[in-house]
Write a structure and sequence with these properties.
The protein is 73% helix and 2% strand. By secondary structure, it is mainly α. It has a domain of 66 residues. Strand 1 and strand 2 form a beta hairpin. Helix 1 runs antiparallel to helix 2, helix 3 runs parallel beside helix 5 and helix 5 runs parallel beside helix 7. One of its GO terms (molecular function) is protein phosphatase regulator activity.
Length: 270
């Protein structure tokens, strides 16, 4: 019954955590028994079971419970098979999605050598626009996972393709992640390549693309600032933030009184 397999998948992460905490007693139980089940359920015939397996896998990766050898020898090969050009459409969409989600949890070497070539292929998938849209929406995360050199050499050409895609939703997704892509590149690439590309998005024929580009304009401009002097940095969730300077921290004690003064002034004015 698919419901039984789904329920089983939901129990795998807590069992794995227990085994990890009790490793002297169960040194190989997870790798011998549980991990093969998770890998097998990624190709289950029932989509709910596959979804449960994917969620379980991501939790295991986030908790750093999967050995590097299992990632490279068991997980990645399955995902590469599922995302192959001749794979079933539904399986391919799911595989692309999980590849993008797990990229930030793996080592840079693993992502660059095992997953990046397939990701670049999927960015040009002419059969399924859903596949290209997932790639576009997660493009910034992939750039961050592989670093500047691989981004400029392999990903930027694909980003240009997606930014000129015939489907406006693709161009909108690119506009939304533009800051994350720009942050991973060198100042010269930002100036000579990404700036003209951004102008094309902000001048797009589709109103939704232009709106997304205008919303990303400030964050994109911020990537041209010197991080050491501007204090700008990218959080783990991909959002832009500012580190407070020492002077700001020291002046925080004055902030409440300033706020009170402003509130009082606005009240009097009313």
């Amino acid at each position: 019954e698919p419901t039984v397999r789904t329920e089983l998948m939901e129990q795998i992460p807590p069992i794995a955590i227990f085994l990890q905490e009790s490793r002297p007693k169960f040194p190989t139980a997870f790798f011998e028994y549980l991990m093969p089940i998770v890998v097998r359920y990624l190709t289950d015939v029932n989509n709910q079971v596959r979804k449960a397996g994917q969620e379980a896998l991501l939790i295991l990766l986030e908790q750093d419970l999967v050995a590097q050898s299992d990632i490279e020898n068991k997980v990645c090969p399955i995902l590469l098979d599922l995302s192959a050009p001749d794979s079933d459409d539904e399986y391919k969409v799911e595989a692309v999605n999980i590849i993008c989600k797990m990229a930030s949890m793996l080592s840079r070497t693993t992502v660059e050598h095992m997953l990046l070539p397939r990701f670049c292929e999927l960015c040009s998938d002419g059969k399924l626009f859903q596949v290209r849209k997932i790639c576009a929406a997660n493009f910034g995360d992939i750039c961050n996972a592989v670093g500047q050199e691989a981004t400029e050499r392999l990903l930027i050409p694909k980003f240009f393709e997606l930014c000129s895609d015939s489907v406006w939703g693709m161009r909108k997704a690119c506009a939304e992640c533009f800051m994350a892509v720009s942050y991973t590149t060198s100042p010269e690439v930002r100036r000579s390549k990404l700036s003209p590309l951004f102008i094309s998005l902000i001048s797009d024929t589709c109103r939704w693309v232009r709106q997304a580009a205008f919303q990303s304009l400030g964050p994109f401009i911020s990537t041209f600032a010197n991080p050491s002097s501007a204090g700008l940095y990218i959080r783990e969730d991909g959002t832009l933030s500012i580190r407070p300077s020492t002077q700001d921290v020291n002046s925080n004690s004055c902030q409440p009184s300033n706020n009170i003064t402003l509130i009082a002034s606005s009240t009097n004015a009313t």
